Request: fold
Amino acid sequence: GQNIDQPTEMTATEGAIVQINCTYQTSGFNGLFWYQQHAGEAPTFLSYNVLDGLEEKGRFSSFLSRSKGYSYLLLKELQMKDSASYLCAVNVNNNAGNMLTFGGGTRLMVKP
Amino acid sequence: ETGVTQSPTHLIKTRGQQVTLRCSSQSGHNTVSWYQQALGQGPQFIFQYYREEENGRGNFPPRFSGLQFPNYSSELNVNALELDDSALYLCASSGEEWFNYGYTFGSGTRLTVV
Reply:
C-alpha cells in the first residue's frame, strides 16, 4: 500500500524560515510533488523532484532523498500570504499510468 | 490557456440520488484525474482517464464512474449517494510535460449529501 506522512499543523513567524517534512512508503515511485492550497481554492503546483537533491525556486526549495523516503519543502522569508495547506504528493506509476497519492496536508499559519 | 474549470461549484443532493460533476481540462492536456477531498484532509485519488480510457483507479466503489470526451473534458458520476460522499471533488488535468508543470487542478465542486 501507499503511506505518506506529514505534520498536521505548523506555526511560524513572518520573515522566518520553515521546513515542512514528508515521509513516504510507496511502490512505483515516479517523483514527488509539493502543492499549496489556500482554503476553498485549488491546489497550485510548487515543485517536482524525481532525483535526489535540492531544487530551488525563489523563496521555495524542495529536497528529496529516495533512499530514505523523505522530502521537505523549505519556505524562506515567510509572508502572511504563505498561510495555507501544503500537500506532499507522490507520483506513482502503476504501469497503467501516473497517479498522485497525497498526504494529509500541513496547515501552516504565519503570524506577524 | 483557460486552466481547469469545474461545474457546478456547489451542490446539495439527497441520500440515494445520483450526481454528475463536470470538468473542462486545460487546453492541450490529454489526461484528467478526479480526487475526493474531505474537510481538513488531503485529496484521495478516484480515477484517471487518458485519451478517453480509464487507466488507473483508487479505492472507490463502482458507483463512482467517469467519462472522458474527445475534447478531453470529463465527467464524474456518483450513484446511490451516501452521507460520507459529502466532500470537495477536484479535477486535475495534465499534458505531456506534467513533470515540469505538474497537474493543474480546478477549484472543485463542493458536494453536500443530506
Summary: Residues 98-101 of chain B form the longest helix (4 residues). Chain B is about 5% helix and 50% strand. The mean pLDDT of chain B is 92.
